[in-house]
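Task: encode each sequence below as structure tokens.

Item 1
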Amino acid sequence: MSRIAGAPDSVRTAILPVAGLGTRFLPATKAVPKEMLPVAGRPLVQYAVQEALDSGIERVVLVAAPGRDLALRHFARDQELEAALAARGRSQAQAEVRMLATFGERLTAIEQAEPLGLGHAVGCATRALGPGPYAVILPDDLVLGHAPCLRQLLDVHDRLGGTVLAVTSLPPEELRNFGVVAPGVDDGIVVEVQGLVEKPAPGSEPSQLAVVGRYVLSPEVCAALPTLAPGAGGELQLTDAIAATIGTTPVHAVRFEGRRFDCGNPTGMVAAGVAVALADAARSAAVATSVRALLSGMDGEQA
């Protein structure tokens, strides 16, 4: 597996594209941005910001639609709420609300005037911020595990440099919705990327390794973003910018440890909520009992 000479640049900034319309969650997302929908009491964007900061990221940049600043308000200081919680003896809730404000100190926002694709969203950020490198987290992909998914990618970037992608193996019928890796040298965890195909036609997939929700982008990818032409679905695809750099800068994929939930659809959101609740020692027994009772009742109805 190829290595680069010298130490790669540190990745200090994570970009969170959150300008999507959330059409699969209408009518809820008519007024509430999808990234603010809750999973076990916390909005999706909070999980993404938490992962970035836990991975050692120093600054998080939200790429949002005009006027959709609810996420920034979520992370703003609210002294009145903190005081009310303190007066009621809700110390744990008070601490979490105060923690949100410390997260907010690391956040900024950039507008994406039109939803023209992930490549366009990331390009809006990189044009404002400079050449990179940058991490990218898609809040729709919630990954639960012992080590933050992004940290796993950054560890590989620290060794190999270049661009690093999170991948997972998916069944062939699902690959048409993802960027798919053409693999080279593969040690079982880190895969050399020899090619990338966005939303491949059935039967043309180069592998079953789909790119999901976490990226570390080299400056070369950032430089390629302004040159993008519309790709799959008529959108500016981040995959196309990454593919343009293959052969000139290292590109690797990582089979990350952890369980991924596709929170871009209601089914995945429900599954993620149950998983988070089951992982909470204070709630796991009650949640497990409720889930078993629900499933038992459904079996009874079907019978």
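Item 2
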Amino acid sequence: MKEALYQKIASGLADKIRNGTLKTGDKMPSLRTLHQEFGVSMTTAIQAYLELERNGLIMSRPQSGYYVRYKPVYLTVPSVSKPILGNEPAYVEALITKMYSTLHRKDIRRFSLGVPENELLPIAKLNKELVHALRNLEGSGVGYDVVQGNVKLRNDIARLTYTWNGKLSGEDIVTTAGAMNAISLALMALTKRGDTLAVESPVYFGILQLASNLGLKVMELPTHPVTGIEPDALKKSLPRISVCLLVSNFSNPLGSCMPEAHKREVVRLLADQGIPLIEDDLYGDVFFGNSRPKPCKAFDDEGSVLWLSSVSKTLAPGYRVGWIAPGKFKDKMINLKFSHSLSSPSIT
């Protein structure tokens, strides 16, 4: 994607701020100076400063101008994780149950779940869309929808995948009640009790709880906090695993994002052994930068990557709208969805 002129100007100024040429507290050049030095319109100059302000690098002071507010924080990057055997399953289960019991408490700040605050969500617009759905859906949305999921929703999801060159159509998508429902259906479709599931370490606790409930063994893979799982560690583990589950983009809780080369290599390694990959791309759309990171699904030529996501982190957690592109396991997924829930909620 071509970078806009205001973004180029903002990027150059951001580099000067981060490398210390412009220090915290320094006054930024005036908008008129920016307009004259770069030969751009005042509108472009304003957009450049708004971009820097959005990124927390500068701040405006009424009738005074813009000032640098960047305060570099130097934290050491943790080393690659070294998974070890954890506590007793009963203790882990009790800890997770205790966490879930606090979901509606207003007196604590929860770092256990990646959920946006209501103030960040377009609630008024969502309410209007619900009314619109009630008026326009056949039977006002009280009837069952098709098992695979609302056709318009599936087509819209498929169109969104153009941001990472996804070659998906609405027919490739199955809607679910959120991402966890998609993971649950995928694991039921691909595994049996006693099978081994490979995951990152550390991994979202809900995945551990689900694996335990399904009678699966969990193999935690060494994981780098920046680049994700180590492909070499995965390669050594292949003979012992039945399925792999990865949060490839901005994993919870580490926040790691696998480089494209690693994603390509992981897809190849697993495909060569006939091992399916469940890819939870829940955070792929919550990115900073000029382009969305590609998921592993972008490198899947055999339909062995089950790519899933939802709108829980970007639009409406409580609506429980999710989806999965199950590749060659599509028929299994639809049959499981039918037997467990008949269809998705029509209105949302």
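Check on item 2: The CA atoms of residues 103 and 110 lie 8 Å apart. The chain has two domains: 5-68, 89-341.
End of task.
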